[in-house]
Design goal:
The chain is mainly β and 550 residues long. It is built from five helices and 36 strands. The chain folds into two domains: 18-31 and 426-516, Sandwich (Immunoglobulin-like); 37-422, 7 Propeller (Methylamine Dehydrogenase, Chain H).
Length: 550
């Protein structure tokens, strides 16, 4: 009997103090190292010493093209070649070797490459078809797994020394297939660029683009319809500039020049350029920060009105920049990621080379990863070329050329490295807060999610009464966030919460059940009665025992 009375007394005490309990439901998830991982090192099946495989690269989804502009073909020296590699879901393998149908000594076919869909273009800037080093570009088409030369293109006003094909870029779209080809030697190094559009199996020159007072225009080019971006690194005593044009209707219109806010002579701004629908980036590998030749890159963002005003958004440099790194030698952009290379970086030995990934955050571009080769060695020059591609919002591939890498194919045979980043979703958030309460009273709940990649996270909470918070954030991974809520009527409510990272990857739902009973008016008077008349407690207990028949 005493034990029963004691138990009843404990129950009464708990009820009168109205203690609220806390519950959590933690879902653990193994974490992975943050950043990009080297997926595979690529070398050609028939490579040899001094081929310079990796001198130019491009990647589009699960296809890559790699230039080897010093490759020989029999007795023909330095005619050049390019290789197509494809990804089958587990590894990259060589699909084809591309060569010019009229290859000749020192053409340097493969000095520039671009691939998109079933088409690829390869530049041969020293082709002599229209005079010494007039240049040419070759377009290839894939049918099944077979690649065939579809066209050799040269400009309508081709002349010796043009170096047409020094740069190439391709965009295959539903509205038409286009290529842009740079000729930086045209007009005594003033430089021009030419745009061609496909018509069935022919590629027709659509326009020729130049710029007043430019120097070496077309040394680098990039196309993302309806825009093209052309670098002119020799402008203004090698300070450099770049020019954007837009296709409106059937005509191309200049949108102005891009220049560095702090540009000076020999910065070589525009040595490398890249553009997509929202961003443009220009490399400036000669830029001096402290010691000389560290390099820089400049990002420009398209205003809502279009590329009509040219405002530099941010100047970016590597976190560990050092003298003569040449940061900005090669640049590429896709989605909200850019890759910038430093082929003279010394982390793995003198001029072993590296590349850096930057991602756009809420207000700025931030360094995300530094890419180096697992077998880095001196004078590999990893980063002589690079390209980045968004397979989807959660997966990116990058390819980085190391054109002087020594490997089984020989000294300076060259190689290329494929890096991959696959985003991991954050863990479902823990929920920490009361599991019972009263109508009309506000209660605080704490939510915490950890992202395996260390990304910032957003939260979304449904309160079980038809209301929700919407997405709020972002907040640092693993940092608790508090939200309050009030239920207006009695009932049992299921709180549901999930998280997503800044890349859009969402966690599963986490839940917590909350019971909101009626607000009984006698609760407080009963407590006051017990406080004022403690001597009545035995009588109350005895009455309860009698009612229960104990």
């Amino acid at each position: 009997m005493n034990k029963k009375i004691l138990g009843i007394f404990v129950c009464i005490t708990l009820l009168t103090t109205a203690t609220l309990t806390i519950a959590t439901n933690v879902i653990e998830k193994k974490t992975a190292s943050r950043g990009w991982l080297e997926k595979q090192k690529l070398i050609p099946s028939d490579g040899s010493g001094n081929d310079r495989f990796g001198s130019a690269v491009d990647i589009a989804t699960y296809n890559a093209i790699i230039g080897a502009y010093f490759d020989d073909s029999g007795s023909i020296t330095n005619c050049g070649s390019a290789y197509i590699f494809t990804y089958d879901g587990s590894s990259w393998s060589q699909q084809a070797k591309l060569t010019a149908s009229d290859a000749d000594d020192d053409d340097e076919f493969g000095i520039s490459v671009s691939i998109d869909g079933h088409y690829a273009i390869v530049g041969a800037h020293y082709d002599d078809a229209n005079g010494a080093q007039s240049g040419a570009a070759y377009i290839f088409h894939r049918s099944g797994v077979t690649w065939s030369q579809q066209a050799k293109i040269t400009p309508s006003d081709a002349a010796a020394g043009d170096q047409f094909g020094r740069s190439v870029s391709m965009d295959v779209t539903a509205d038409g297939d286009y290529v842009i080809v740079g000729a930086p030697g045209k007009n005594s190094d003033q430089g021009f660029s030419y745009i061609f559009k496909r018509s069935d199996t022919s590629w027709i020159q659509q326009t020729k683009i130049g710029a007043t007072n430019s120097k070496k225009l077309g040394y680098s080019v990039s196309i993302c319809m309806p825009y093209v971006l052309m670098g002119a690194y020799g402008t203004n005593s090698n300070t450099g500039a770049a020019h954007i044009y837009e296709l409106i209707g059937s005509s191309w219109y200049g949108k102005g020049a891009l220049t560095a806010s702090d540009g000076v002579s020999y910065d070589l701004f525009g040595s490398s350029v890249a553009i997509n629908h929202d961003y443009a980036i220009c490399g400036s590998p000669g830029h001096d920060l402290t010691y000389g030749g560290e390099g820089a890159a400049y990002i420009f963002e398209k205003p809502t009105s279009g590329w009509t005003t040219m405002t530099e958004t941010q100047k970016i440099t590597a976190s560990d920049i050092a003298s003569s790194d040449g940061f900005g030698k090669s640049v590429s952009v896709d989605g909200d990621h850019v890759i910038v290379t430093s082929p003279d970086d010394d982390d793995g030995g003198l001029a072993s080379g590296s590349a850096y990934i930057f991602k756009r955050g809420a207000t700025s571009w931030n360094e995300m990863a530094k890419l180096t080769a697992s077998d880095a060695a001196a004078q590999d020059y990893l980063g002589w070329s690079a390209s980045i591609n968004a397979v989807d919002t959660q997966t990116y591939n990058a390819i980085v050329g190391a054109y002087a890498d020594d490997n089984t194919n020989g000294v300076d045979a060259g190689s290329a490295y494929v890096f991959n980043w696959s985003n991991q979703a954050p863990n479902a958030p823990t929920i920490n807060g009361p599991v019972s309460g009263k109508p009309g009273k506000s209660y605080n709940y704490k939510f915490k999610s950890t992202d395996p990649d260390g990304d910032q996270v957003y939260y979304y909470v449904k309160w079980g009464d038809g209301s929700n918070t919407g997405w709020f954030g972002p907040y640092a991974s693993g940092v608790e966030q508090t939200k309050s809520h009030t239920w207006s009527s009695k009932g049992t409510y299921l709180i549901e919460a999930k998280a997503k990272d800044t890349y859009g990857a969402e966690s599963g739902w986490q839940t917590l059940s909350v019971k909101i009973p009626k607000n009984k008016a006698m609760t407080i008077p009963l407590i006051k009665l017990l406080e004022n008349h403690i001597n009545l407690l035995p009588i109350i207990i005895r009455n309860i025992i009698q009612r229960l028949g104990l």
